[in-house]
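Sample A.
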Amino acid sequence: GLVGLGGMACAGPVARLAALCAVMAVQVLAFELLPRPPATCQPGSQAWQPAPTEHLGLAAACNIPRMSLEEWAAFDGSSPVILPGSPDNMFARITAKDHLLARFGETEIILSTANTFSYKKRRSTLAEYLQYYLTPRTLADSAKDSYYHFGDNNYSEWVNFTEHYVRPPYLYQREPFFSFGIGGSGSGVPFHTHGAVFAEVIYGKKRWFLTAPDTRPDFDPDTTSYAWLMSNRTRPDGMLDCTLGPKEVLWIPVNWWHSTLNIGDTVFISTFI
């Protein structure tokens, strides 16, 4: 869910200009407060929304191999694979939009810019983010000025939240770090790398683009994943590409380049090992 300057859920040109001025006035802060929505704004839906018409064609066929848990047990983990998620749907019930709003609506969250380095942060309540700013992205949005909820969770405030998530089967050498996120349709993060991770979709769909650590893709860190895809409709040789839905887990080995694109409101959790 990216919160860009043009992402006001019910903002016309005047409201957008006011939001832009509000953002520019606080750029010097390390953590910026998310601009309040106009008083005339009406809250959004109490349910996660599917992709709008203009985003329906963003999904693609998959060229990443799928494995059963039995096959995974004998695999060396050297390349990305797709695993089945847990049949337990407790975490899906907990992360339904109406439940999150009722239980954690006033909880403060930290939003990060949706560019490769995610260097700017903003504070918001979960309710403000979900109700007013979780809007479909457009090609005019800039990654460095769009804000996204992923990681940076203060789990001391999200009491008993991640304990209901069934982590993927793995011989964990330490307690994993969980990163929970929510993205609006067309949001995502440009290519980046980090440690090995299991990434699971709970609601919505997420398209993944991946290349090996020694094959840096051609991209601009401040161009959104959506804009990158629209200008690179032919998949480069060697690039892995797959759209995942609920109960599907992507294994990403350490330092693999990857970019994400959410299709419809997307709720996801990553397990960093």
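Sample B.
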Amino acid sequence: MKHFSPVFSCLEIGPVSKFEVVDNLIMRQRVFMTHLSPACLNFDKFQRKGVKLIYIMRNPKDQVISWYHFAHQHHFIQNKVEPWDQLCPEDFGKFIDICIEGNQGYFGKQREGYLEHVRYWYEHKDDPNILFVMYEDLQRDFCKEVRKISDFLEVPLSNAQVDQIMKNTSIQSMKKNVPDKATDLAKSMVRKGNVGNWKDHFTTEQSQYCDDKVKRILGNTDIQFTYEL
């Protein structure tokens, strides 16, 4: 199956009956994605079954910018379905403020946003079945991080396979492989992928506010975000 529909690959999207379909597929390994927090998943079952999870973290400033461009391709935003302007205003400054405050309701409870999502997952950092990967580390040394992931999954890779993965997952390659008939939302999943784009959008005050919130929410962890390379 060349293209696996997001309805099947994303845990929280689509009817529950999709899992019956997946159970009948002849697949030695299954890969799913999710945006949910641990509290919204049957996490104990995952642990009992030995499910392996990879959590990708990105610095919160670039995450906000990426989220802005993706969110504004959603139909309810484009069609101005209320309360769209309260959740995803077109004004960059307002969007950044709302997002950092956690007033969008996409990542959990009201007044909780991306940083709280990271914190909830990071409480499981010592679990042997979870690997945390920094997006910026993938940009800094892709081969090293892919090796780390392959070791975690116990899937040996040759140097040629690592090189092929690097080629297939480059921004240029992924943009090229987006079908012409894909929706604007699907196309927006691959934009720039660089580190430090936030500097073109954040004010000094917004940047400092974000730094302060990182300290407040994640200050008791060993997480160190990279904001530029």
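B remarks: The first strand starts at residue 53 and ends at 57. Strands lie at 53-57, 130-134.
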